Amino acid sequence: MRINEQHFRTIWQQGDRVCLIDQTQLPFELVTVEVTSLVQMCHAIRSMKVRGAPLIGVAAAYGMALALQENASDGSLQGAMQQLVATRPTAVNLAWAVQHMRQQLLALPIAKRVETAWQMANMLADEDVSQNLAIGQQGKVLIAGKAAANPQQTVHILTHCNAGWLATVDGGTALASVYAAHDAGLDIHVWVDETRPRNQGASLTAWELAQHGVPHTVITDNAGGHLMQQGQIDMVIVGADRVTRNGDVCNKIGTYLKALAAYDNRIPFYAAVPTPTIDWQLVHGAAIEIEMRDADEVAYMQGQGSDGKLQKVRVIPHESRALNPAFDVTPARLVTGIITERGIFPPEQLQQAYTAFEPKS
């Protein structure tokens, strides 16, 4: 990722600790923090200092390495996995990463586990970057096709939540295609949903796009359907926290409504995901556990005050209750295609590709 023309990853190893960008401080301040223990990593994931399905999978892998530095026994390995899985239950990448680590490390002598754990976590980080860059090239073809159909017009893309650099180690998922198209000289513009209640679109996606120089406009979550009716959106590209084998897409709350509006207006709707985000064990999205987050995320909003400091303000009456499901499921019938590092597939073709694509432990 480019930040003030410097290259960053969202997370990296530094000696016996892990460094990461604290996303709760963006877009107003770039803060990096050091994580030195399993407890701290669990807190970073739960509090969304790191977030996004691919990124929290890698963060959890680093969490396993940190845990083994303290105690490399079988019991510690099992306990670390359980603690990490409990932090965010919806994204499949997290559970897959720690189970993958556990299976490989249990087979090793205790003396070799720490070094191997760091190596595996770094390998998963590098794999995430290469997968995301490949996703970008796949999605660029879609955008280029739309541009070729109307060469004198800007291609307008709607995205929901944040599926860019910050949701991954680097490169992004949905935004990987946007960056690849922009860097190839295509005339594009991104409509950025604010994405309540945590405003990941307004705070994170907009910041990323500004850093990369991509033209964009932040809109309220309820404006997308109107813009579709007005012919101002050519395609929708989102990320996902889990995609089931039949092509159901679980993503940030509000994605389902975008897909319904896109379907009604005959606008293509794509989800961009690396294959570890596809849960080959689940056939339908109804079986996905939807994370319920603290109601205060709905009751309060964070922003920058006139003094330049971050502050929270309450936006609902003290007498009112709030409900905060973090994700919803878009059924496969509303999805035009799944953009992966290995190709773009209609939902019905994912199951056919099961044998070739199933992640190997």
TrEMBL record:
<feature type="site" description="Transition state stabilizer">
    <location>
        <position position="161"/>
    </location>
</feature>
<dbReference type="Pfam" id="PF01008">
    <property type="entry name" value="IF-2B"/>
</dbReference>
<keyword id="KW-0413">Isomerase</keyword>
<feature type="binding site">
    <location>
        <position position="200"/>
    </location>
    <ligand>
        <name>substrate</name>
    </ligand>
</feature>
<comment type="function">
    <text>Catalyzes the interconversion of methylthioribose-1-phosphate (MTR-1-P) into methylthioribulose-1-phosphate (MTRu-1-P). Also catalyzes the interconversion of 5-deoxyribose 1-phosphate and 5-deoxyribulose 1-phosphate. Part of a bifunctional DHAP-shunt salvage pathway for SAM by-products.</text>
</comment>
<feature type="active site" description="Proton donor">
    <location>
        <position position="241"/>
    </location>
</feature>
<feature type="binding site">
    <location>
        <begin position="251"/>
        <end position="252"/>
    </location>
    <ligand>
        <name>substrate</name>
    </ligand>
</feature>
<comment type="pathway">
    <text>Amino-acid biosynthesis; L-methionine biosynthesis via salvage pathway; L-methionine from S-methyl-5-thio-alpha-D-ribose 1-phosphate: step 1/6.</text>
</comment>
<dbReference type="InterPro" id="IPR037171">
    <property type="entry name" value="NagB/RpiA_transferase-like"/>
</dbReference>
<comment type="similarity">
    <text>Belongs to the EIF-2B alpha/beta/delta subunits family. MtnA subfamily.</text>
</comment>
<dbReference type="InterPro" id="IPR011559">
    <property type="entry name" value="Initiation_fac_2B_a/b/d"/>
</dbReference>
<dbReference type="InterPro" id="IPR027363">
    <property type="entry name" value="M1Pi_N"/>
</dbReference>
<keyword id="KW-0486">Methionine biosynthesis</keyword>
<dbReference type="GO" id="GO:0046523">
    <property type="term" value="F:S-methyl-5-thioribose-1-phosphate isomerase activity"/>
</dbReference>
<dbReference type="InterPro" id="IPR000649">
    <property type="entry name" value="IF-2B-related"/>
</dbReference>
<dbReference type="GO" id="GO:0019509">
    <property type="term" value="P:L-methionine salvage from methylthioadenosine"/>
</dbReference>
<feature type="binding site">
    <location>
        <begin position="51"/>
        <end position="53"/>
    </location>
    <ligand>
        <name>substrate</name>
    </ligand>
</feature>
<protein>
    <recommendedName>
        <fullName>Methylthioribose-1-phosphate isomerase</fullName>
        <ecNumber>5.3.1.23</ecNumber>
    </recommendedName>
</protein>
<keyword id="KW-0028">Amino-acid biosynthesis</keyword>
<feature type="binding site">
    <location>
        <position position="88"/>
    </location>
    <ligand>
        <name>substrate</name>
    </ligand>
</feature>
<dbReference type="InterPro" id="IPR042529">
    <property type="entry name" value="IF_2B-like_C"/>
</dbReference>
<dbReference type="InterPro" id="IPR005251">
    <property type="entry name" value="IF-M1Pi"/>
</dbReference>
